Structure formats: C-alpha cells, structure tokens
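Dear Dr. H.,

I hope your travels went smoothly. While you were away I took the liberty of generating a structure for the chain from your last submission, since the lab meeting agenda had it listed for discussion. I wanted you to have the full record in hand beforehand rather than looking at slides cold. The sequence, exactly as received, is reproduced here:
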Amino acid sequence: MVKVSDILCSVVLLFAPSAFGQTPSASHLPVIEREGFAAVTSALKGRTVVPLVIPSSLPKDEEVDLFFCTVITLEPNEYEVIIGWDTECVGGTACRVGSLYGKRSRGSRITGTGNYPFERRRARRVRLRGGITGYFVDVTCGANCSDSKVFWKKDGYEYMVGLKAGKMANVVELANSAIQNRR
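The corresponding predicted structure, in token form, is as follows:
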C-alpha cells in the first residue's frame, strides 16, 4: 500500500532544486557525455555571451586521470560548471573534483554567484597570468570540504575556478590554464 506521504515526498524531491540550483527537469542545460574540458567548451560555445575561460587540463598534483563536466547554470550572461568523477555530478561532495564559472560583471568588485559566493574577508591576493590580480579563498571543512577557489575579473567579466580542498598552488595553476585558454 502506497502512503500519501510517500507520494508527496517523491514529488517534492523530483522538483526540488539541488544544492547547486539545477533541477532534474532543467532541459535547457546541455548533457555532456565525453570526458575533459574540451567537451564542456564545445557544449557552451555560442550559448552564452560570456567569453569562455575553461582550463585545458587539471593540475598534475590533483592525480585525476578521468573527469567530466556538468553544466549547472547556463544563461546568456553566466555559466557554471561542476567538474566531477561522473557525467551526472551536480555538486555532491563525493563526486565533485572542482568547479568553475564565468559571468558578466558590472562594477569593479567581485561578487561571486549564488552557488559560489565571494568571501572578501577570507580572500588572499594572488598574481595570475598576464598580470591579472586574483583572489584565493581557501577551503572550509565541516561535514564535508568546499572547493578552494580563485576569483578574478577581466574586461567586464568575472571568473572563478576551484578544486575540492585544493592547494593554493594547484588552484592558481588551474586559473592560469583557464586564462591562457580563453575563447
């Protein structure tokens, strides 16, 4: 016998947004079946006005041979991507390797996004490729660990790359790879 509470719970879970804003019915988001960063670059190209700043590879120290990218936000002025161990990782800590975003940004301050807020008080200035000033925000751990992140602005756009509990040197390397690979 099926209880009404079981049915209601199933309906709520079906339509409830994930921790990172994507719902299972977010059909406008591309599904990426191939591994690596080239696949997400192809999936995003022409679908946002934000110049794509996607790394060419993960730092060797991360010891990740195989990874996939899942687009969790895709709007004309913003994209957000989860880097994970499988094709359906939407931010869960067990599958997440890292994250990245790009967005149009007015003004001079870095603001972050709803999924990746910029914590100015915790930010440490770092020098990036091409003389760009970036801001490193270290991991926080509680029940699980967040991404260590580097945020920066360039030509009216704001970007972030992150690695789950990543070392500053590795996250800076990832940011520099993304800056070099700008499309």
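Two observations you may find useful: Confidence is low (pLDDT under 50) at residues 1-25. The domain at 19-180 is CATH 3.40.1000 (Protein Transport Mog1p; Chain A).

With kind regards,
E. W.
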